[in-house]
Structures are given as structure tokens and as C-alpha cells.
Write a structure and sequence with these properties.
Elements: H1 16-24, H2 40-46, E1 56-58, E2 67-72, E3 75-84, E4 87-91, H3 101-104, E5 120-123, H4 125-132, E6 135-146, H5 155-163, E7 180-182, H6 213-218, E8 223-225, H7 227-235, E9 240-248, H8 250-254, H9 265-269, E10 282-287, E11 296-297, H10 299-316, E12 319-324, H11 329-337, E13 341-345, E14 363-368, H12 376-382, E15 387-392, E16 395-397, E17 414-415, H13 419-431
Parallel strand pairs: 4-5, 6-7, 6-9, 7-8, 10-12, 10-13, 11-17, 13-14, 14-15
Antiparallel strand pairs: 1-6, 2-3, 3-4, 3-9, 15-16
Length: 433
């Protein structure tokens, strides 16, 4: 856009229209962001101090050296990681100070194997000078990289827990929100690329493991980049330096995980912050009665639980929310985020419980068919300081008495519970001192 005329622009002002709005002090409908009203520290978080020429690096003979910041198997934080021609390079003269490449990532072609040399590689500084040259692009700030080809409902959560391990009072490293999330092995859309000369076809987005609203709500400035975007960088045949890269690879984690699900390794292996919020007595039941696959409560038990929760609301002044796992995402997550207690059938519908506000009166209650148990939800919420209770009908299991892991089958199953026992446990959780 070109602007013509004789006028002087004041720094931090966009145009004279902005000045006129300030003069009239018109707040209603004001779309201008008045930067002089934002604290300096906040400006740096939102805008940074990056100029238009700061995307280029000329390092000459002073090759950027990779630094390992944090690591557990499958989850790593590194500085100065270089990507060129689709290969991710770690540059170091001290390879013994780094975990093995197989502990960082997996092969895109065979996720059970270590990455191939064309996918991940480790170079000495001298080798990097010969292969990568003297200049390249700089990808500023913190980038997230999910290297898995099969998405997980816990991808975003695991990346955040890995990243937030830097947010401690003793850490010398600055903590900034992520700017972009790469999915190098997941295409933007499902299915076959349609004929570009044919009719316009609305394509379905690939599954990333989380609802598309979620990253926009949790990280509004986070850009999502998929396989095609990664290939664009590769085809440019220029090295790009990631200023900071947070890597998640669930298959690499699975090769080391023994007693916890792969996504949970950063939860138990890295010291991450725990967010605490204000206390409010809200109980949310996530119902799967409308689901066409997977397990659901036996109809009589579902009805009895709903009635018991309504009685709990009337007699104890609790706020009770009953939401469908198949309903609008906004409704479900809004209810979970306000809740002290969340309960529902085992499986993906409880993955959003990680957005509860932890307190000494918060808990997740998960209903299983008899002789079935998984630790996904238990490991996730306990890492946040949230109490966990599993149920087999009227049998109750907590941290010190959990049954052995025994995954169920993905078929329609009716799960039996004892609603009276569940309500008694809810009262115990929210009233304990």
C-alpha cells in the first residue's frame, strides 16, 4: 500500500486516522491497537523486536552450534537446530553430550526404527561448514515440531508440558510462547490431491489429534504448518536455523517408556509448572450416550447418574454440567475448564481434562468396563496435581491401588457403574479439608 502526501508519521502510529480516533477518544468499535497503552514487557511478548531483515543469517566460519536444553526420550528442547533439504541437523563437536538420534525422533518411513540419515543427522562443526555453507535463514523464536505421522489427542498437551518445563523460577532460560507448530509428516488435507483443472472440491483437513479451535483458543498467535509447508522449506535448498525447537516424537518415547504412556514422559521426566486457579464447585459429566463407536454407560446407569447429579445440584448448590462427547467442542471445553470434577467413560473424551484448573478439590473419575484399564488420563491429570479415581462398577481405584494396564477393544460396550458410589466420591473430593 502506498501513501502519498506531505505528512510526518509519529513512531508507533499507523496513520492520521489513528490520531483522529485518539483525539476523539472513540473506544467503541475501535480496531486500532494503541501500543503506548501496552506495558513494555507485554509488547516484547506480542510483537518482539524482529525487523524485516532479521530472517537472514550470515555466520561465515562461525557455524551456529546446537545446544540441548532439556530432554527425555521422545521430547527435546534444543537451540540452533538446522534444517536443510528436508534433513534436520544437530551441529556439535560434543556428540556424547547429546542423546542418541533414536531417542529424539523416529524414521518417517518406519516409526519403529531410528531416523534415517536423510531425516536426522549429527554433524561436527567442520562438517557443517562444508555441507551447510556460510549463510541461511533464521526461524525466530520457539518452534514446536511434532514428528509423528499418526496424530495423538495428547500431542498439544505433551508439547506444552515439555515447553513449560522452562517456566521455573530457577531456569536461566527465557520463557516465551511458541510461534509455530510443524507437522512434517502429516499433510494439510486427507485423501488424494484433486485435479487442479477439475471442479472445486471442498477437502477435509487432516486429523492433527486436537480440535482445530483448540490451538487458536490456547495459543492465538500459533501458526500451524503441515507436510507441504515443510517440503517448501526443503525445496528451497537453503539451511534454516531454528532459534529454539521443541520436538515431540511419540514413537521414540514408546521405545523407552515402560510404566507410563509415551505422551506422559515429559509429564514425569521434566519439571513443568502447574497452573492453579480459583476454587469453584462445578461437576461435569461427559456423556458418550450419543457416540456411534466405543463404550457408553448402560442406559439405566446413565439415567440414574444424571438424576443423582441433579439431586447433588439441588441439595448442595453445586453447578452440574452434562455435555455430550459428540456435541460442540466449545461447549465441552468451556464446561471442563470451569470444573472441579470431570467424569466419564474411558477414552479420548476425557483428554480435555488437562484443561481443568488444578486444586486440592479437583478430580477426574473414569469409568471402565470390568478388567479394562489404561493410564492415559490418569498420568496426564496427576501430573497437573489433579486427583484421579477409576471405577469398575462399584469398585474404586486410586493412585495406590490402580489395576494393571489392560487395554480394551474399540467396540460398542455397555459399562456398568454404581451412581450412588460415584456421587459419594464427588462429595468426598470437593469437601475434603
Amino acid at each position: 500500500m502506498d501513501i502519498y502526501g506531505d505528512w510526518v508519521s509519529d513512531e508507533r502510529r499507523i496513520s492520521s486516522v489513528h490520531k483522529q480516533q485518539e483525539k476523539e477518544d472513540t473506544s467503541e468499535g475501535d480496531i486500532w491497537l494503541k501500543t503506548d497503552r501496552i506495558p513494555e514487557a507485554q509488547k516484547q511478548i506480542i510483537f518482539g523486536n524482529i525487523g524485516v531483515n532479521d530472517g537472514f543469517m550470515h555466520w561465515g566460519t562461525h557455524m551456529p552450534e546446537t545446544r540441548i536444553v532439556k530432554h527425555v526420550a521422545g521430547f527435546s528442547i534444543m537451540d540452533n537446530v538446522i534444517m536443510c533439504n528436508g534433513t534436520i541437523f544437530i551441529v556439535t563437536d560434543s556428540p556424547s553430550s547429546f542423546p542418541s538420534l533414536g531417542s529424539i525422533a523416529s524414521s518417517a518411513d518406519n516409526s519403529r526404527e531410528d531416523p534415517l540419515p536423510g531425516e536426522w543427522n549429527m554433524l561436527s562443526i567442520e562438517q557443517a561448514r562444508d555441507i551447510l555453507g556460510a549463510y541461511g535463514g533464521l526461524i525466530q523464536g520457539t518452534s514446536w515440531l511434532s514428528y509423528d505421522a499418526i496424530p495423538s489427542n495428547y500431542t498439544l498437551f505433551s508439547l506444552w508440558k515439555t515447553h513449560s518445563s522452562l517456566n521455573t523460577s530457577t531456569s536461566p532460560d527465557p520463557f516465551h510462547p511458541p510461534r509455530r507448530l510443524f507437522f512434517p509428516n502429516i499433510p494439510t488435507h486427507k485423501g488424494v490431491q484433486p485435479d487442479l483443472n477439475g471442479p472445486i472440491i471442498r477437502r477435509q483437513r487432516s486429523d492433527s489429534g486436537f480440535h482445530p479451535y483448540l490451538p487458536k483458543a490456547a495459543f492465538p498467535s500459533l501458526g500451524l504448518m503441515y507436510k507441504e509447508d515443510w517440503e517448501d522449506y526443503a525445496l528451497m535448498e537453503v539451511p534454516f536455523v531454528f532459534e529454539r525447537l521443541v520436538v515431540a516424537d511419540f514413537r521414540a518415547a514408546a521405545r523407552s517408556a515402560i510404566n507410563v504412556p509415551p505422551f506422559a514422559l515429559p509429564l514425569v521426566g521434566l519439571n513443568a509448572s502447574k497452573e492453579c486457579g480459583q476454587e469453584k464447585t462445578v461437576v461435569t459429566y461427559i456423556s458418550r450416550q450419543d457416540a456411534t463407536t466405543g463404550s457408553r454407560l448402560r442406559r439405566a446407569d446413565h439415567d440414574a447418574l444424571v438424576n443423582a447429579l441433579k439431586t447433588l445440584h439441588e441439595s448442595n448448590d453445586f453447578e452440574v454440567k452434562i455435555v455430550s462427547s459428540e456435541g460442540p467442542w466449545v461447549e465441552r471445553l468451556s464446561a471442563v475448564a470451569q470444573s472441579n470434577v470431570v467424569l466419564g467413560i474411558y477414552g479420548d473424551s476425557l483428554a480435555d481434562s488437562v484443561f481443568m484448573r488444578p486444586s486440592e478439590h479437583s478430580a477426574v473419575m473414569e469409568f471402565f468396563p470390568s478388567d479394562v484399564f489404561t493410564r492415559d488420563a490418569e498420568t496426564a491429570v496427576r501430573s497437573l496435581g489433579i486427583r484421579y479415581i477409576a471405577w469398575w462398577n462399584d469398585r474404586r481405584f486410586e493412585t495406590d491401588s490402580l489395576p494393571s494396564v489392560a487395554p480394551g477393544i474399540d467396540l460398542v460396550q455397555e459399562v456398568q457403574i454404581d451412581p450412588a458410589s460415584v456421587v459419594h466420591a464427588i462429595l468426598e473430593v470437593v469437601t475434603r479439608t
